[in-house]
Amino acid sequence: MTDDELIWRIAGGSGDGIASTSQNFAKALMRSGLHVFTHRHYPSRIRGGHTYTEIRASADEVESRGDGYNFLLTLGDSFARNPSENAYYGDEEQKPLYENLDELREGGVMVIDSGLVDTEVVEDFDERVEENDWHVYEFDLRSLAREHGREVMRNTAGVGVTCALAGIERSWIKELMEEAMPEKILEPNLEILDEAYEMAMDVEHTHDVQVPEGEHDEEQVLLSGSDAIAYGAIDEGCRFIAGYPMTPWTEVFTIMSQNLPELGGISEQVEDEIAAAALALGASHAGVKAMSGSSGGGFALMSEPLGLAEMTETPVVFVEAMRAGPSTGMPTKPEQGDLEHVLYTSQGDSNRVVFAPSTVSEAYTQTRKAFELAYEYQIPAIVIYDQKLGGELVNVPASHFDEEPNADLGSTLTEAEIADAPHDASGKFNRFRYDGEKGVSPRSVPGQKGGRFLATGNEHMPAGHISEDPENRVFQMDRRMERVENIRADLDGMGTSHQTPHGVSDAEYGILTWGSNQGTVFEAVDRLNDDGYAVKALSVSDMMPYPTEEVQAFIESVDEVLVVEMNASAQFRGLTQKELGRYGEKLSSLLKYNGNPFEPAEIVEGFVTSIVENDTLPGTETKFVPAAGD
Amino acid sequence: MSAFSAIGEETDKDQNEFTPGLEPQPTWCPGCGDFGVLKALKGAAAELGLSPDEMLLCTGIGCSGKLNSYFESYGFHTIHGRSLPIARAAKLANPGLTVVAAGGDGDGYGIGGNHFMHSARENHDMTYIVFNNEIFGLTKGQTSPTSPKGHKSKTQPHGSAKEPLRPLSLSLTSGASYIARTAAVNPNQAKEIIVEAIEHDGFSHIDFLTQCPTWNKDARQYVPYIDIQDSDDYDFDNTDRREASEMMAETEDALHEGTVLTGRYYVDSERPSYGQEKRTIGEMPEEPLAERYFDDDYEWERSYDMFLDKHR
């Protein structure tokens, strides 16, 4: 990692085009040869309300949002409902300015749309500018946009100014605008871009923040975690999805719904999440690769069909996009609070697969693996991720997705195979008979001759008839659970692991984390090692079945371990202790659950203060929970 | 060999085809109306010349939910109230299947009420049989959504303060395109109606009155039935929504006063099924989706070829 980076933050009101502008801008930076990482912050509102997107661009790989930022483009909130300081939510119109100043780095650049934003609302503005050596450029972007087109085009004006001030080649932006915009709005936007650029070139530049130059070895694509999950499902032959909109899962649902009809697939938006999960089961039962998903509250409703999938051994993939809870919590804010919910929800003993991808590229590969295991082992597989991973756009080499499709239905028989398979005396196919292969009983699907059986959520005999016979119960229960153990053995035997290590090998300290924190933790580990500490990290993606051996080896190789996660009750640390059966004295936690993801500096500070210096954390943003033995 | 060769296969029209060769024998109480549904369904399936391997019978929970244990076909005994979403997805995934869902009045009109409303609204091509005995049977006699006002049970000891739900009217309002009421004690009509319902291309709802001799001894289902299609007194056009609605209202008003009318209340043969609508607008493949997974020659598309231009 290097200091030579542009972290551009565009702030405005929800509905002001912040997301689309930043998406284009990120793509332009990627096309220019840089590595990019975006971080989205938005309120649970349609129009109005402070929102920002941050794009970190560097010649080196970037895996996190970084600490703070060095270029602010503040447009003001044109949809603000409360342009008054005394309003309940504060002065919304000006929020995009005053809410963002704390994280603007020393020497940073500030572009202010003076048509809407007034620096006088910020207390001691001039003093703070001077103190932090900020470089402030004020332009009436609003009027410029009005002059050539419409007021909402002031984001284009902001981009034009950014190009001038940060030394970005305009052609990258223009090319993207030409690709994306219809003729009618393209013309005024190009005019605005150019005029804003000239305007900013005409003023004296006092700052030294510039976009770095970079080059990619191979072609890159810009994707979010939600994109990657959807594409992973498509490549694995998933052609049926059912869902009910809920943030942030809606992104995956939308991408699938927009693409499946073209692929000859089916997407169903249904009455509730219970129905959504049940539809996925119905389609899978009938011989189609199917998925459903939701976020916390919706997934709670899905827990009943989830249990049915386990009992009937119906393969299915569910996606769970975490947001801050409990209940409806904070709909647009990231948290990792649903881990235990996803691991243990539904009645009875869990037999399921749970993967928690850490990066956009893992979101693709692990979704594919989830489908493969679900259909091979006839078990529900859940991909759990948070709002951060779902929404962050990063560049990934295009070749990562240059993979063969796999529409294999796993352990599903053909009619010829069914004819040779053992049947019950009633004429039914012995669907749930153990054939000695990893606990998996090959299945038939309705319409196949000679394959009929009864799928039931009650305990059942090999052909599916309901039974409370104690011997059969234990046999069936053991067989279902055995599959989970065999999946672990399969994963371990693959040669590649879903767990990602990072840092120095002879480390004194360890950091254990999971999910979307990975990049941030790794960046913190690099800095700690640069600062002279010997630290390594392990980012765990397999939640169930748990990678016991790998995690145990990691914990034992260091003196002390800090577990970093975004929730208030240290759920992953709890899981680790439960699965390994010990280490209560060795694992302490660094937690964050205020609705914003970790920044690398917070992890560095948390680690040094709590673990090395054994002191109390000063801030309220993160929280240290000591090991049980302390 | 086709992947689903059972579909479209003619059987020898013997209802024994649909009787499991061995155990289990029904666990329903002697005199239970559920036997009537089972018999009518077997008769209907045989009359239609269906093969047990091309039928999928999805049931909910309760005494009625055990129907597919005693009926020989592919079966999915699901969970409380959820037979419909599972059944309709199976039909979308493989339109070649004959899909029937069944459940009780608590299962279908209570806990699964939302699914009932929306399945009817979407007009999925399937048949839904609701065993309506106006009581929760398997949980031992609690008041159900169709129990009459004033009905006393262990959970409503003062007598229910609620008006019973009106299944036929609800079904019509929700959008079902075939609506009938029949009864276990009227086996010939019941069989005819199930045959029609399965043949109907759209959502067919049968409110099937069944008696519960154990928990609902007072129910009116023991009185003689009047078949509305057989009586000149009830002459109406069951393809006319307004007339159907009036007849339903009359029937539902009279049900607890000793008059039980059964027959076809509403038949709309014009409206395309949901699957057809989806095919028309290009949201569903012409060929059964499930077939494709067994076709070794099918070329599966991948995201790299389709979407990456958008992300470059």
Automatic annotation (TrEMBL), chain A:
<feature type="domain" description="Pyruvate flavodoxin/ferredoxin oxidoreductase pyrimidine binding">
    <location>
        <begin position="232"/>
        <end position="475"/>
    </location>
</feature>
<dbReference type="GO" id="GO:0047553">
    <property type="term" value="F:2-oxoglutarate synthase activity"/>
</dbReference>
<dbReference type="Pfam" id="PF17147">
    <property type="entry name" value="PFOR_II"/>
</dbReference>
<keyword id="KW-0560">Oxidoreductase</keyword>
<dbReference type="InterPro" id="IPR002880">
    <property type="entry name" value="Pyrv_Fd/Flavodoxin_OxRdtase_N"/>
</dbReference>
<dbReference type="InterPro" id="IPR009014">
    <property type="entry name" value="Transketo_C/PFOR_II"/>
</dbReference>
<feature type="domain" description="Pyruvate:ferredoxin oxidoreductase core">
    <location>
        <begin position="507"/>
        <end position="582"/>
    </location>
</feature>
<dbReference type="InterPro" id="IPR019752">
    <property type="entry name" value="Pyrv/ketoisovalerate_OxRed_cat"/>
</dbReference>
<dbReference type="Pfam" id="PF01855">
    <property type="entry name" value="POR_N"/>
</dbReference>
<comment type="subunit">
    <text>Heterotetramer of the KorA, KorB, KorC and KorD subunits.</text>
</comment>
<dbReference type="InterPro" id="IPR022367">
    <property type="entry name" value="2-oxoacid/accept_OxRdtase_asu"/>
</dbReference>
<dbReference type="GO" id="GO:0006082">
    <property type="term" value="P:organic acid metabolic process"/>
</dbReference>
<feature type="domain" description="Pyruvate/ketoisovalerate oxidoreductase catalytic">
    <location>
        <begin position="15"/>
        <end position="198"/>
    </location>
</feature>
<protein>
    <recommendedName>
        <fullName>2-oxoglutarate synthase subunit KorA</fullName>
        <ecNumber>1.2.7.3</ecNumber>
    </recommendedName>
</protein>
<dbReference type="InterPro" id="IPR002869">
    <property type="entry name" value="Pyrv_flavodox_OxRed_cen"/>
</dbReference>
<dbReference type="Pfam" id="PF01558">
    <property type="entry name" value="POR"/>
</dbReference>
<dbReference type="InterPro" id="IPR029061">
    <property type="entry name" value="THDP-binding"/>
</dbReference>
<dbReference type="InterPro" id="IPR033412">
    <property type="entry name" value="PFOR_II"/>
</dbReference>
<dbReference type="GO" id="GO:0044272">
    <property type="term" value="P:sulfur compound biosynthetic process"/>
</dbReference>
<dbReference type="InterPro" id="IPR050722">
    <property type="entry name" value="Pyruvate:ferred/Flavod_OxRd"/>
</dbReference>
<dbReference type="GO" id="GO:0006979">
    <property type="term" value="P:response to oxidative stress"/>
</dbReference>
UniProtKB/TrEMBL annotation, chain B:
<dbReference type="InterPro" id="IPR011766">
    <property type="entry name" value="TPP_enzyme_TPP-bd"/>
</dbReference>
<keyword id="KW-0560">Oxidoreductase</keyword>
<dbReference type="InterPro" id="IPR029061">
    <property type="entry name" value="THDP-binding"/>
</dbReference>
<feature type="region of interest" description="Disordered">
    <location>
        <begin position="140"/>
        <end position="166"/>
    </location>
</feature>
<dbReference type="Pfam" id="PF02775">
    <property type="entry name" value="TPP_enzyme_C"/>
</dbReference>
<protein>
    <submittedName>
        <fullName>2-ketoglutarate ferredoxin oxidoreductase subunit beta</fullName>
    </submittedName>
</protein>
<dbReference type="GO" id="GO:0045333">
    <property type="term" value="P:cellular respiration"/>
</dbReference>
<dbReference type="GO" id="GO:0030976">
    <property type="term" value="F:thiamine pyrophosphate binding"/>
</dbReference>
<dbReference type="GO" id="GO:0044272">
    <property type="term" value="P:sulfur compound biosynthetic process"/>
</dbReference>
<feature type="region of interest" description="Disordered">
    <location>
        <begin position="1"/>
        <end position="23"/>
    </location>
</feature>
<dbReference type="InterPro" id="IPR011896">
    <property type="entry name" value="OFOB"/>
</dbReference>
<dbReference type="GO" id="GO:0016625">
    <property type="term" value="F:oxidoreductase activity, acting on the aldehyde or oxo group of donors, iron-sulfur protein as acceptor"/>
</dbReference>
<feature type="domain" description="Thiamine pyrophosphate enzyme TPP-binding">
    <location>
        <begin position="61"/>
        <end position="208"/>
    </location>
</feature>
<dbReference type="InterPro" id="IPR051457">
    <property type="entry name" value="2-oxoacid:Fd_oxidoreductase"/>
</dbReference>
<dbReference type="GO" id="GO:0006082">
    <property type="term" value="P:organic acid metabolic process"/>
</dbReference>
